[in-house]
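Hello, quick one for you while I still have it in my head. My current little project is about how a certain protein chain folds up. You're getting the sequence in one-letter code plus the fold written as tokens. Would you mind checking whether the tokens look sensible for this chain? Here's the protein in full, and shout if anything looks odd to you:
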Amino acid sequence: MPQLDPTSYFSQFFWLCATFGTFYLVLTKYILPQIAKVLFVRHQKAEQAQITQESPLQQETLHVQHTTGQHMTDACSKAKQAVQNAMQKSQEWMKEQTAQVQQKQLNSLQTQYTSQMKQNAYTYAHVSQALKHTLPPSAQAATQFLHPKNTPKMRVFDKTVVHTLFTK
């Protein structure tokens, strides 16, 4: 079923939010103000009629109008709360998904970095071995620099030898 395809979740969620967001805006900006205006006018007319003459039918009409207004107000506040909750949950979900994508990308970058560093270490070891075999006999005594205590000396010696090899 195409709607259960995980690659389309984001687009489905986006369009769901866009549709309900548009519906909410149209409802709150156009439809509900018109309904409120009609109810207000009816309420005003009912009050004028009540002032002129009070009958049981008019009292019942006023009561129905009042309860209808309260129900509309309650429904609007519940709808607003539901939309706010949905938006908050969608923002939290988006943050989680962004963090997961970033974590995946950082893991791949870490593996690439590790493999590159291994390759550089192997290249350095290969160059060091090649230098040992290509050095003149007078420089063979310099192999004592390879001792772990002599690493700074070995680095200076390697830089000097490599520099002289590439400058000629």
Notes: Residues 56-134 form the longest helix (79 residues).
